[in-house]
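2.7 Reproducibility. Because tokenized structures are sensitive to small changes in the input, we list the exact sequence used for Diaminopimelate decarboxylase, including any N-terminal residues retained from the expression construct. No trimming or masking was applied before prediction.
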Amino acid sequence: MNSQNLLNIAKKFGAPVYVYDAEKITSQFNRLTKAFKGVGSLRLNYATKALSNISILRLMNNLGSGLDTVSVQEVKLGLMAGFKPESIIYTPNGVSLEEIEEASALGVQINIDNLSILEQFGSKHPDVPVCIRINPHVMAGGNSNISVGHIDSKFGISIHQIPHLLRIVDLTQMNINGIHMHTGSDILDIDVFLYASEILFETAKNFKNLEFIDFGSGFKVPYKAGDIETNVEELGKKLTKRFNEFCNEYGRELTLAFEPGKFLVSEAGHFLAKVNVVKQTTSTVFASVDSGFNHLIRPMLYGSSHEISNISNPNGKERYYSVVGYICETDTFGSNRRINEISEGDILSFKNAGAYCFTMASNYNSRYRPAEVLWYKGKAHLIRERETFDDILRNQVDAKELFEPPKKVVAK
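Resulting structure tokens (single pass, no recycling of outputs):
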């Protein structure tokens, strides 16, 4: 998908708009599969929260992916997209027992990350197979908001609580069929990940009926030229060798599972926005676009860097711009970026907009959420319509009768 394709999409569907390249998603899926080709049984469960459009889920199902979900709503989306219940794993955090039971009734794999719910669920449903999410206290993540393996994390059951965990399993006689961990996103050091894996292998020895070991995900993708990324080929080679050794020790072949989200869809995404105003101040040239952190919150929330290019003027002279949005507070996409000369009306492309962009979008400032387009086999397909004012009012209850002026009393 080239710049002219993107410009044509912006012209046809309007801006702002999210565009996803199905070919890039497919190549990333195949790359990860190839990296672990030495494993007898591999399951890639796409992390729905990264990009949950039902057409994207259908594409993943078509590729042979499983599904990682964190809410019962994502479970239902997955079932609507054609996933079989047994190919969906449900890994919530801090939800009620009732929601877990609702997901369980749909037939999906349950993954529990705290002792309280584990004991309650095991006592009521001892025959339902359950995976346990372990916190190995090994931290990954490029930002504190996405580092979930530290000792004070709300995610997972601490490895220091294993004796308590085993007591619950023994008393309830529940069926533990999987062990899971997730250290956080943006994994850079493969050796740190392998160290956490050893903790998971050691924990797995306590359970005799395992079917799979789930290593989570968090593979880092490049956000600009020359950026560091997770070497999945090296990880595949080292972890495959160790996993196969463990299966021999365990006495039977297990399934190795991952939950890639950003790795599969981030680089496939482009967010297109039109420049409303070019504003020169005493020290800065601002390019203000018809969008804001209501559509792409990651730079403001995580400090993430998205490469920005002017696809309307790809050969223009480079100048320095601070690209900002229209939200009425600090709303910066990038400061002092070298971008081909920008004029009002130009279309800017924000790369790596496939993961955690639309799914974290909002109607802040009562703005509409944009359309989504899938580029598939050389054609652009609308997969979500742009919102309208009716969508802003949807589900609101106008209690106007409460505020009608009082009736005048006429003195007689």
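Residues 28 and 306 are 19 Å apart (CA to CA).
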